[in-house]
Structures are given as structure tokens and as C-alpha cells.
Amino acid sequence: MGTRSHLWSYVNYYYFCVFVDSQKVFPVCFISIIALEKIFEWGGEQLAMYCGPDLGDLIVITLNK
């Protein structure tokens, strides 16, 4: 089982390096990072409501950076 999954990781790496253009990958990754930032911002604000003002501010600042 371990050898099969190890071989599969090489197949995925080969496919990514040969068939995927890096100029197409960068914009997709950039858009996903922006979406994650919004999710973390929302999650931090939700946690801050339950943790109090001091710890809540620390959580919001930590997740926004």
C-alpha cells in the first residue's frame, strides 16, 4: 500500500510539472488566498465575540496577519 501511494505521488508531480502552466496556477492561488483571508477575518470576529475584548482583539489581529 505504501509503495502504491508513493508511486501515485510521482504521477501527480509529473502531471503538475508537465501539463499545468505556472501562469495559470498563480492567479488561481492568488484568488484562493484572498478568499481564505476573508474566511479568517470572519472567523476571528466570531471567536472574538466569545473570548472577551482583550483575547478577542489578539485573535483578530493574529488571524488577519
Task: Break the fold down into its secondary structure elements and pairings.
Blueprint (H helix, E strand, L loop, with lengths): L1 H18 L2 H30 L1 H12 L1
Helix pairs in contact: 2-3
Structural write-up:
With 65 residues, this protein is an all-alpha fold. The protein has a domain at 21-65. Helices cover 92% and strands 0% of the residues. The chain is built from three helices and no strands. Helix 2 (22-51) packs antiparallel against helix 3 (53-64). The N and C termini lie far apart (40 Å).
Low-confidence stretches: none
Percent range for helical residues?
over 70%
Q: What is the rounded distance between the termini?
A: 40 Å
Rg (C-alpha, Å): 19 Å
| Largest sheet entry | none
What is the H-and-E element order?
A: HHH
Backbone structural class? mainly alpha
Round the mean pLDDT to the nearest integer and report it: 76
Helix run count: 3
> What is the general shape?
elongated
Query: What share of the residues does DSSP label as strand, in percent?
Result: under 5%
> Based on DSSP secondary structure assignment, what is the total number of beta strands?
0
